[in-house]
Fold:
Amino acid sequence: MTAVHPAPAAPAHIEDLLADLQLERAGLPGRDPVPAARRARQAADELAGLGLSRFVAELLGESAPVPAPGAVLDLEADEEGRRASYEIWCAEARELTGEVWRWLTDRRRAAAAESPGHGELPWWCGESALPLPSDSVRRLAEVAAPVPDLSETAEAWARPAGLRGPATAEYNWRFLLLGKGLRGRPGGALPPLNELITRLVGEARRHGLLPPGHRVRVLRRPNTPSMVMPVRLPGASLLSLPTAVTPVTVQYLQHELAHLAEHAARPAGAPLADRWTFDPLRSEGWALLLEQSAGSTAFLARLGIDEETAAVLARFFAEEEHFSRGLMAADLALDTDLAGCRTSAEALEAASAVAAGTGLRWAPELLLLRQTRVLHWRSYLAGYAWRDTVRAGLVARFGAGWADRAEAWALLRGALARTGPVAGSAAGFLAALTARAPASLDARVAGAVHVPSP
Structure:
């Protein structure tokens, strides 16, 4: 059941303002001829009253900028082109090293000043524009994982692609991660992007994850990460995707559709701040749960993918998860090591040591640059454990074929629709799943809520 909140409803023009800010952030015109930035300044008092000032400042680009390279790593070029693109990327990252180090140092110093004593919040909590649930902060802070040697996986991906030079060189890993050299992939076996989007959105609608009238607008951009944004809840969403289809595109689409569904499920009557506030642990864990379905050969068959290709994809998806979790484990290890560093030179030395453990010979300046998104990486690593807890609960209640049970999806939809600082948290989601479960399942899942690491 959706939590009831006493807060007053926001004026409709604030909802329209947030929609236009999101559209303008994506480079699209808003629906109001008056620029959203001007309207946001005029509505500053109302936004502050709703607790959305910091969130709007982030949408406007007025919050502290996160250091990031301007160049795009070209994933579509041949190896020589990719190497040249990578060198430009690395050069920018080297130029940003000082700025990245100052940004990280300032964030750590600010966190210590704002939350002195035993109640100190981790520095990365400041990455979120809206408050994080305390239980999720604890689990994100406690998550840990050993750094694995990923060179064997990278080499296995590289050999059939005929990549020259060291197979584990850092300029190849993104190319390999996207499955360009996926062993045994039949040419042209994956559906075109239009068809893939249509079928995956259809799967989401089949499980009731999108309201019947909810519109999905697709924005295609070459060589950009996938993302999803609410445009006007609960009526429409914007889905931004790369233009090329690779094996991992199936996963990425599922992941982003999960975020889209979480946005769309928010009840229209909930306070506006709650409708735009998301627990990163719950959001990433839920997205990873839906993404995991892409590894099912039956699911892939419904997308029109033949049995042989489906088996290859399922194997690749398992390898990709291992690879990605290993990279994020390296990020967390570096976060810990940076606490003892005093200069950017020491930070780069720490990054080099961590990179060596992965076997990928990753440029230290790039690993250091990833620290600006460590909340995201923590949310993923903790989200894998949370996902496994949710899945274990669904299997215990509905059996191994839970994904084919309408009752299971109804339960998930109900949990997704919960909002508020407690009900809308990762712990609140688990509570919703176990509310009517047998006592034995209740005990198993309740105990798993407090498992800190994957």
In short: The beta strands are 215-220, 227-232, 236-241.
